[in-house]
Amino acid sequence: MAAAFGAVGGRWKLTILYWLAHGELHFAGLTRRVAPISHKVLTQQLRELQADGLVQRLPTGAVPAPVIYRLTPYGETLLPLIESVRLWGEGHLRRGAGPVARVCAETVSPRH
């Protein structure tokens, strides 16, 4: 459990992986989807996900060209876990989740 939580635990990593599961994204696209994450925290989380071999960073040209992020094949092995967590969260909200989950649900609009 410790190794799993080290790789994907925390407030943002599963959300970042969820959106990258829908396709590669530029940093700005990730920022919009994972809001209200700060640029600094998103950068830190992406670097950690890269270090664990879950996310690939693809520069599109010379600096300051946009950078694209996508799941690696190893990162794609997390898709069943991510979907399970998403489904559990939906069920938790339907069940009448506690105040923390309700606040999260109110601040996140569905973007599929």
Task: Describe the model.
The chain is mostly helical. The chain has a domain at 2-77: Arc Repressor Mutant, subunit A. 59% of the residues lie in helices and 11% in strands. The chain has helices spanning 2-8, 13-21, 27-34, 39-51, 73-76, 79-94, 99-107; strands at residues 25-26, 55-59, 67-71. The protein has a 3-stranded antiparallel β-sheet. A hairpin with a 7-residue loop joins strand 2 (55-59) and strand 3 (67-71). The chain is globular. The termini are far apart. The relative contact order is 0.14.
Beta content comes to 5-15%
CATH architectural grouping of the domain at 2-77: Orthogonal Bundle
Largest sheet: 3 strands, antiparallel
Please give the CATH class of the domain at 2-77: Mainly Alpha
Give the uncertain stretches in residue-range form.
none
Please give the number of β-strands: 3
Distance between the termini: 30 Å
Separate helix tally: 7
CATH-defined superfamily of the domain at 2-77 = Winged helix-like DNA-binding domain superfamily/Winged helix DNA-binding domain
SSE series: HHEHHEEHHH
Helical content (DSSP H or I, runs of 4+): 55-70%
Bulk shape: globular
Domain HTH hxlR-type: 1-97
GO molecular function, one term: DNA binding
Organism: Lysobacter silvisoli
Keywords: DNA-binding, Transcription, Transcription regulation
Gist?
The chain has 7 helices and 3 strands, in the order H-H-E-H-H-E-E-H-H-H. It has helices spanning 2-8, 13-21, 27-34, 39-51, 73-76, 79-94, 99-107; strands spanning 25-26, 55-59, 67-71.
